[in-house]
């Protein structure tokens, strides 16, 4: 029976954390996925992990994989809250936890000439509608024609040859901005002469294109991505028989361009297999704010001059040990992260019917501008163990730790644009999570994998799932 390679054993991807549920560390405590997939227990220990991780250089056989992803929610005052923060039940006294469900699938096709095509997708379908129309055609509360809360992750990977591969990745929702919400509400009141629709956007999309080059055991990956954050409300129709057509934006409605090169330097030194290092750079391209459009007889135009920029560097050191005649394997990957963020938001200008306003109608704390800076260092330590007592069965378990801090400074400006108040802040955080998985290997063609992960070792909030993989040709 052919053994699963050591590289596959420690190739674990937190795909469920990325798309279906919040990470085990929630918003501020997300351990970097590259470190987790290389060093922790590993949720899915199959070929699909390589496609999910965009690491298809060593894939030779075609395969098909399908699985289930689940997540338990939390209790909030006796009301059942799902992992996206939506109330899905409860009466103030219940103790049951919410359950969020998703599915994932992947396949890979070996092509002539050393080429390879891989596709992976995970999706959580959560759409709804709730509206009432009376006999006269009026629509009041509830008036929700359609709400989209589904999240997903779609990956396409193509190996051109043994040295070059290309990837495309679409994320709808993420660990730090998990809710994808697009809703249409329709209000009709013929007595008040109201007939308008309200469109609400509170969502995140990420489009990424990456190229990977492998030179021997070294590997360079260069992803370029666009983040689209939508947080606005648009209204169109008639209110009191008066035309309205406007949008109201918040401060997180913007587009950003990111460059995140990553390099693996193969440098075997004892148990250490090499050094991973990377740079994260992002710059905001647009930042809408305030009310824009026509509301009755008043035409609004609000602008905000803002630069958003984030720079980060990180390095990790993967290590592996083999014990007990290869029946037990141990891996860890310490990682150091340094992140810097700059944002000079808040310089707001508002025009009503073409006239610049000195007093803003919106709620802006610093209409003359802010200069914001944040420095966020952190250290991560994921540790994983694999035990294979027999050829057809293996157990994978581990833990992951994180320590970090945020140091921030905000400088507001007065009406003349001069520096005014300065606010500084400092906070630290830490987290711990547990990972567990098991795999059943049937011959060289068939795998069944199960996993579970808990944040801060709490079984109230847990991610879990199972996957089946079949290899052919």
Describe the structure.
The chain has helices at residues 6-9, 15-19, 33-39, 48-52; strands spanning 62-72, 74-76, 79-81, 87-90, 99-110, 116-124, 127-133, 139-148, 151-159, 164-172, 181-189, 194-215, 218-239, 242-249, 254-259, 262-269, 272-287, 290-295, 298-305, 308-316, 319-323, 328-332, 335-343, 347-352, 355-356, 370-390, 393-413, 419-442, 446-455, 458-472. With 473 residues, it is mainly β. The protein has a 27-stranded antiparallel sheet that branches. Strand 5 (99-110) and strand 6 form a beta hairpin.
List strands and helices in order, with pairings:
Blueprint: H1 6-9, H2 15-19, H3 33-39, H4 48-52, E1 62-72, E2 74-76, E3 79-81, E4 87-90, E5 99-110, E6 116-124, E7 127-133, E8 139-148, E9 151-159, E10 164-172, E11 181-189, E12 194-215, E13 218-239, E14 242-249, E15 254-259, E16 262-269, E17 272-287, E18 290-295, E19 298-305, E20 308-316, E21 319-323, E22 328-332, E23 335-343, E24 347-352, E25 355-356, E26 370-390, E27 393-413, E28 419-442, E29 446-455, E30 458-472
Antiparallel strand pairs: 1-5, 1-30, 2-3, 3-4, 5-6, 6-9, 7-8, 8-11, 9-10, 10-12, 11-12, 12-13, 13-14, 13-15, 13-16, 14-18, 15-17, 16-17, 17-20, 18-19, 19-24, 20-23, 21-22, 22-26, 23-26, 24-25, 26-27, 27-28, 28-29, 29-30
């Amino acid at each position: 029976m052919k053994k699963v390679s050591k590289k596959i054993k420690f190739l674990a991807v937190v795909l469920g954390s990325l798309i279906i549920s919040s990470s085990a560390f929630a918003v501020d405590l997300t351990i970097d996925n590259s470190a987790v997939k290389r060093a922790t227990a590993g949720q899915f220990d199959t070929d699909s992990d390589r496609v999910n991780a965009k690491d298809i250089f060593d894939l030779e056989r075609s395969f098909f994989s399908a699985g289930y992803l689940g997540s338990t929610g939390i209790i909030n005052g006796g009301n059942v809250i799902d992992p996206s923060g939506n109330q899905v039940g409860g009466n103030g006294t219940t103790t049951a936890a919410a359950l969020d469900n998703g599915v994932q699938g992947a396949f890979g096709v070996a092509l002539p000439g050393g080429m390879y095509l891989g596709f992976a997708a995970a999706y959580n379908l959560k759409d709804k509608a709730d509206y009432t129309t009376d006999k006269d055609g009026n629509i009041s509360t509830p008036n929700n024609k359609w709400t989209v809360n589904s999240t997903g992750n779609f990956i396409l990977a193509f190996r051109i040859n043994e040295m070059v591969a290309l990837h495309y990745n679409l994320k709808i929702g993420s660990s730090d901005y998990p809710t994808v919400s697009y809703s249409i509400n329709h209000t009709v009141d013929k007595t008040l002469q109201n007939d308008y629709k309200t469109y609400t956007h509170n969502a995140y999309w990420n489009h990424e294109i990456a190229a990977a080059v492998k030179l021997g055991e070294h590997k360079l990956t260069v992803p370029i991505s666009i983040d689209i954050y939508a947080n606005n409300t648009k209204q169109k129709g008639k209110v009191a028989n008066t035309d309205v057509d406007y949008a109201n934006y918040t401060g997180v409605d913007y587009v950003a361009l990111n460059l995140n090169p990553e390099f693996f330097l193969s440098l075997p030194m004892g148990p250490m297999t090499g050094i991973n290092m990377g740079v994260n750079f992002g710059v905001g391209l647009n930042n809408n704010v305030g009310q824009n459009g026509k509301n009755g007889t008043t035409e609004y135009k609000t602008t905000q001059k803002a630069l958003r920029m984030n720079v980060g560097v990180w390095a990790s050191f993967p290590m592996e040990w083999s014990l007990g005649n290869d029946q037990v394997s141990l891996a860890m990957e310490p990682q150091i992260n340094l992140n810097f963020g700059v944002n000079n938001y808040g310089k707001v200008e508002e025009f009503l019917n073409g006239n610049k306003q000195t007093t803003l109608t919106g709620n802006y704390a610093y209409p003359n501008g802010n200069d914001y800076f944040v420095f966020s260092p952190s250290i991560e330590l994921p540790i994983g163990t694999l035990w294979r007592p027999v050829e057809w069965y293996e157990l994978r378990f581990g833990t992951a730790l994180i320590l970090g801090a945020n140091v921030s400074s905000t400088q507001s400006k007065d009406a003349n644009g001069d520096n005014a108040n300065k606010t500084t802040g400092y906070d630290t955080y830490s987290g711990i999570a547990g990972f567990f998985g098991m795999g059943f290997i049937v011959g060289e063609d068939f795998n069944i994998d199960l996993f579970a992960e808990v944040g801060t070792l709490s079984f109230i909030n847990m991610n879990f799932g199972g996957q089946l993989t079949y290899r052919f040709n």
